[in-house]
UniProtKB/TrEMBL annotation:
Residues 167-595 form the UvrD-like helicase ATP-binding domain. This is AAA family ATPase. Gene3D superfamilies: P-loop containing nucleotide triphosphate hydrolases. Keywords: ATP-binding, Helicase, Hydrolase, Nucleotide-binding. InterPro entries: DNA_helicase_UvrD/REP (IPR000212), P-loop_NTPase (IPR027417), UvrD-like_ATP-bd (IPR014016), UvrD-like_helicase_C (IPR027785). ATP binds at residues 188-195.
Amino acid sequence: MSWLYDRLDIARERARVALREVYARGGSGSRQAMVEREALASEQARRLAQLNAVERGLCFGRLDAGAGQRTYIGRIGLRDEEHESVLIDWRAPAARPFYVATAAYPGGLLRRRHLHLKDRVVVGIDDEVFDLEGMSEGDRRTLVGEAALLAALRRGRTGRMGDVVATIQSEQDRVIRASWQGALVVQGGPGTGKTVAALHRAAYLLYTHRDTLERRGVLVVGPNPMFLRYIGQVLPALGETQVVMTTVGEMFPGVRARAAEAPAAAVVKGDVRMAGLLAEALRGRQRVPEGELVVELDGLRARVPHETCARLRERARAVRLPHNMARKLYVTELLKELARAEARALEESLHIEDLQVEGEPELSEPLDLEGDLDELDLDLASRRLWEEPVVRRAVDGLWPELTPQRFVAGLLASPEELEAAAPSGLEWRELVRSPGAEWTVSDVPLLDEAAELLGEDDSARRVAARLAGAEQAEQELYAAEVLTSTGVAEAGVFDRADVLAGRHADDGADLTTADRAAADRGWAYGHVIVDEAQELSPMAWRMVMRRVPARSLTVVGDLAQTGSAAGARSWGEVLDPYLEGRWRVERLEVNYRTPVEIMRVAADVLAAFAPEQVPPVSVREGEAEPRAVRLAAAGWPVGLPELVAAELAEIGAAAGEGRVGVVTPDALHARVSGLFPGGDLDAPVAVLTVGQAKGLEFDAVVVVDPAGILGQSPMGGQDLYVAVTRATRRLTVVYEGALPPVLSRLNSREPAENLVSREPAEKSTT
Ligand SMILES: Nc1ncnc2c1ncn2[C@@H]1O[C@H](COP(=O)(O)OP(=O)(O)OP(=O)(O)O)[C@@H](O)[C@H]1O
């Protein structure tokens, strides 16, 4: 393999030299030249980062066809001095046979070889022979075989997800290379490789549609920050660094929602009718005074009649602009009315006799100060009035300028406003919270919705700026293509290419697409991948869909693992409102993670709580029967550290391999974490709630207090299913009292001597 690494070193050196040359050109010149230089530099820097990221396992496959033809497959493509391809990028069409050839359909291949490298040296080889007859005598002698997939699955876990580029299975390959138009739903049970396939899909799409997706970016939405850390290394290892990863709780710039939400409140906040409630509540903030509007100005009482205020409000609403933008119109009109009212007040305060100057002809006309005001006067008077704090206060009382945070926090703290705005049947009482409460994940879609209603983002400004720019034509062309190719125009979601183009507008070349996109709430991504998508509420979907007007999505999830009471029950229910049938489902049915013995336990749980769902089929046998261990009740969970230490020894953690995951109900998490200080993903032992463990895996899993998990929410059954399917090798369930009947398959053992608390038995509270 050293010759391939030589090519890699040469490519790196070239990229380094090119980057140096770009910078050596200096920073002077026109704006155009600077923009070009930045673009070139960022392209070279990206290339260098990509070349650096593929060091480990650069090449992992070889395809042998007739007449000695050999093709090497690797993480990126490389060429020799003659520009001949020496390594094929795994995403290129020429690499596809590596993933799809089978004994029945070899597609002209004689052999598929998997190569295992360590420090640039081949340390293992697996061969799959498709045509022994076709192979030369010499080649036959070189055959080596152990199924590459099973070897990969047996490896100890590191606490981080790795890529599977060398062993992608053909049903996963279908997912990875599926068309990027419309939405692709990847439905599959635990461990079927949904996440890993989705990440490889991101890399594949960026490779195949680089031009478009580099400008628009790809967004990956995961269930929690822990999960993002877990998968964080996969894309760089595949040579892709230009992807934004986030969670629902972080999708509103400036807010990092972490606080937990009561299930009942999460259901209401996730209900799509919340969009109507917010809109109605905002209308409620556009007020008309009970009687006339009275503003005290230098001893004068300017009075605007109730009907005039009502008329102004209707006119401002009629323009159908977001609240803060319509406010500008409202303020302009109201200030003019106040100017007139001020003139009227002045008129009333003066008596014609007072204005009579001695010796001048007698004034007979009644005063008409208001009638005398022309547009210029009104303008000047408006400006003057706008500087008056009393006027500002009056305007704010009628049509306040609001931030999403202020509006939503105020609304959730006001039972009166909630009641007035809630549609009938919506349990608005669940929403009430104290004014200073922390933001929860379920609040974030509400903030995003509020931002749309308020118009706090700067999309209008960007559209206007772009209209003047030369780039507009190109943007519109792209937008028009998107509109026709996706059918979004017919659906009436975005029917104006210039609006869509405005959403796609670029703001400069000095930041990467990923940087700019991550900071911009109004950014429109080229493709969005949602993992653990079953957890998103309808309101969260509205927020996600705003980020992808072209409706190009990969939706990854398992309806059997829905843990959120506000989550999905069917994909049609989630996607039809946005895609009207332009989505399709691919199913992954083989479980690469959980051995057969553990999956039998999981299947019992699934049958009890979601009998309509079919568990996936495990690909391998395990090394140990899953077990249940009853720990003595007193001081619960005394004995756990010893049990976990024994598990660590079983999986060979002493040799630096393998991880134990301890999964607890929410209520026990703090207490159990205290028993294992410093435990996070990189430590040998991680203590997690079910929500945190979602999507993760460990060599050995210890599920603590299954009854607590079952009872902690209406989706407790699904939570227990998630908990027991995190193990790649060993599963232990520890409980106090009685084992829940749904786990009766597990051999309940009497407490082992070293695990029993010697304290008197009494039931503890968890
Ligand atoms: N083709 C493959 N080759 C090697 N390992 C694989 C392959 N497919 C999946 N795996 C491994 O199987 C495990 C489960 O994959 P992944 O986490 O993507 O599953 P999932 O369907 O997202 O599971 P869950 O629903 O539980 O989150 C991972 O360790 C992954 O690396």
